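Example (one chain per record):
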Amino acid sequence: MPSHEENIEEAILLMRSFADRTGLTSDRPQARYLWTDAFAVCNFLELAHLTGERSYADLARQLVDQVHHELARYRADDARTGWTSGLGEREGEAHPTRGGLRIGKTLPERRPEEPLDQQLEWDRDGQYFHYLTKWMHALDQVSGATGDPRFNFWARELGEVTHAAFTRGGRAGRRMVWKMSTDLSRPLVASMGQHDPLDGLITCAQLETTAALWPRVVPGPDLRPAVADFATMVDGLDLGTEDPLGLGGLLSDACRVVQLMARGTFHDGILLERLLRAAYAGLVHCSQYGDWRQPPSRRLAFRELGLAGIERLQKNSDEGPLAFGSEKLHAQVHALDSYVGLRAAIAPSWLEPQQQRRSIGTSTT
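Predicted structure:
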């Protein structure tokens, strides 16, 4: 495997290429896509941290600005114009996330009178909750890295509006919808993503935890009701999955919960125990039947790279509250030791330039 310094250099090359290719640092047309851009913001912030070069943090903030001015507004081929929130120009600038953000898909969203085409829907625009939570997380990371509370404020506004738009039902049966229209007025896909309530719970709790650092600077929305609502949904949710994308998400969520436990959130360890139990069961299956055993031409990088993060989870656990707390949770984290090698099985194939070129432009879901 490459050295730490070589990994940083490779990341720099990849992110510079991304910035040029998507119009962030070039005259090329902007190619904004919310899922990818959320990860890119975090990558730029980490490069700033690792290298000490402020230019990468500047790129993160520049990317946030581009995303808000592109995906928080209606498409150029839409009869509607302006901010999706319906706010005027000045107010929209101050509250860019109040109407949510578009996915950035190739095709416009399905019109109300059009029948659902399951296959075509993958390429149609609209809003995905699990993309929006990734953007909330990215905004919160910008606040943490820069000390500017505005980004956390925008993330909480996004959390408030999306909680209201994507949740359904009364006390007897709360649920969510998977995909909403660009203006959040109607569901496009009414089924619920398995881990959407989990994403909402962890992300909104994270935003509230960060907001507590600036209680009088930017008050903003109170997400505690959303946290309580998502927690109720998660209580009755089966978190288990054998899907590599969902399993990588569980590992990432476990890592975030460990970080939040160090800040006094999820301190009872119950959620972390559930995440670790579900992740372990999924890894047992994936270790035998994982997609990475297939040729790269039959794989998608974004679906499996989350499985390469077990070492990060273990590092956070060993340095954080689990090192001095629950022996049971600590043992659960290290029950994953035998799967640390997945990183060596997955990452090298996606470091090959040929495979990177093949995956560029691949639509994610």
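Caption: The mean pLDDT is 90.
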